[in-house]
Amino acid sequence: MQRDDYLQASRQTVGEFAVEWLATIASTVRPSTLDKYQRDLRAHVIRHIGFVPLAKLDGPALNRLWARLAVSGRKPASPGGPVTGLSTKSVENVATAGSGGCCDRRRPSGVLFARRRAASS
After folding, report:
1. Nearest residue to 104 (alpha-carbon basis) of 93, 114, 96
2. How many CB atoms lie within 10 A of CB 27?
3. Rounded Cα gap, residues 102 and 89, in angstroms
4. How far is 119 from 89, CA to CA, in rounded Å?
5. 5 belongs to a structural domain
6. Which of 27-41, 80-94, 100-114 is the least confident region?
7. CA-CA distance, 23 to 84, in Å (whole number)?
8. Residue 102 backbone phi and psi in degrees, to 5
9. Rounded mean pLDDT of the chain?
10. Would you say 114 and 67 are in contact if contact means Cβ atoms under 8 Å apart?
11. Residue 39: which pLDDT band, with cuts at 50, 70 and 90?
12. Residue 7 included in any domain
C-alpha cells in the first residue's frame, strides 16, 4: 500500500470489531483483565453502539455514550426499581476497555470528570 492509495471503508460494526479485538488481546492481558474488558464492552458498548459501522464511529458519538452511561448505565437494583447512572470511575473503566480497540482511545469528555472533582471537593 502506498501513500494516497484508496482504502475501501470497512462494513465491520463496532460490535464485530470489539469481539475480534478481545480475541486478539486475550494472550497479552491477564485473564481477570480480559474478563473485565469483555463484561464492560458487552454490557455498555456493544449493547448501545455495537450496530454502528466502525467507519462511522466518532468522538461525539462516544461522548454521547459516556454521558448516557453516566445518567442511565446501571441496571435497576430490583425489578421495576429506578435506573441510575454509572459512577464516573465506572464510565472511565468502560472507556479504558474500549480505548485499545473499538473506541480508538477516545476518552469521555471533561464534563463527566468534572462531576467527580466537584464531588471530592
Report:
1. 96
2. 7
3. 20
4. 12
5. no
6. 100-114
7. 31
8. -65, -25
9. 77
10. no
11. very high
12. no
In a domain, 96, yes or no: yes
Provide the 8-state DSSP code for 55.
G
Which set of grid coordinates corresponds to residue 13? Answer: 460494526
Mean per-residue pLDDT for 47-65?
88
Range of the domain at 36: 14-120
How many folded domains does the chain comprise?
1
Write the DSSP assignment of 73-101 as a string of letters: -BPPSSTTPPPBPPPHHHHHHHHHHHHTT
CB atoms within 10 A of CB 97: 25
- In order of 1, 7, 12, 98, the CA distances from 48 in angstroms are 34, 28, 16, 13
